[in-house]
Amino acid sequence: MRVLVMLDGTVVDPGTPVIRVDDLGITRGDGVFETILVVDGKPRELGPHLDRLDRSAAMLQLPPPSRPDWEHCVQAVLDNWRGGAEMALKMIYTRGPEFGDGTPTGYAMGLEIGEKVLRARQTGVAAITLDRGYDPEIVSRAPWLLLGAKSLSYAVNMAATRHAESVGASEVIFIAADGSVLEGPTSSVVLVNGRTLRTTPPSSGILKGTTQGALFRAAERAGWVTKVEPVTLAELREADALFMASSVRKITRVHTLDGTALADTTDLREELNALYESEY
């Protein structure tokens, strides 16, 4: 089951060609996107996702996305969805055709949640740490590197994931040149020590996690301490538990890190996911 709606509200057969071959989102990766989890017809964290789309577009100097148009586009996807209770909703916004009139290309797609994702939610994932190749101090000095933008240029992220799979893992945690923890290719890193949750700051050149944010809000109400601060690789390895948070996978347990099995935290996974679900 798939649903495709263009930014102008037109519902299109997802099997119909609608993107020009010279669209800069295809030829250069010149665009931004967001992925939203929809449950029972209700998109989760739509506002924060649209805020992040705005921020990413501004970093790429794209024309400001029209929030009313995107809200209408998203609603059209929801209205036409005939699949299961959960859906992954992707919003794509590119610079448009290279030889066009400058009008961006925008559309939203509704997609079924894959079996691999559903399985990872239950069983957890094996992760490896990989060097991301930059020092967080460069973020403010070189904004043209687009660190922290959710751009369509995901070749490095996908290459890292393929490398992980080639060595028997399924997830990556990127490490900066100074040894600090960054994020996963498609997720935020959450460490647990006692009743404290920690994640890394956007100032290090990573995305501000929407799912992680929802978890932290719920955890604070339940009496947990939450911290957004730099985390070292040593602290990552010494944590009581380790999780990856993303819109579609929710709060996923890391059961193996760099080939070392971690403590069984299945009960904690259930507790954290219950906290996260309490936001909705």
UniProtKB/TrEMBL annotation:
Keywords from the UniProt entry: Lyase
Domain of life: Bacteria
A Pfam match: Aminotran_4
Gene Ontology MF terms in the entry: lyase activity
InterPro entries: Aminotrans_IV (IPR001544), Aminotransferase-like (IPR036038), BCAT-like_C (IPR043132), BCAT-like_N (IPR043131), Class-IV_PLP-Dep_Aminotrnsfr (IPR050571)
UniProt GO cellular component terms: cytosol
Gene Ontology biological process terms, A to Z: carboxylic acid biosynthetic process
Family that this chain belongs to: Belongs to the class-IV pyridoxal-phosphate-dependent aminotransferase family.
Alphabetical list of NCBIfam families matching this protein: PRK07849.1-1, PRK07849.1-2
Designated name of the protein: 4-amino-4-deoxychorismate lyase
Organism: Actinophytocola oryzae
Lineage: Bacteria, Bacillati, Actinomycetota, Actinomycetes, Pseudonocardiales
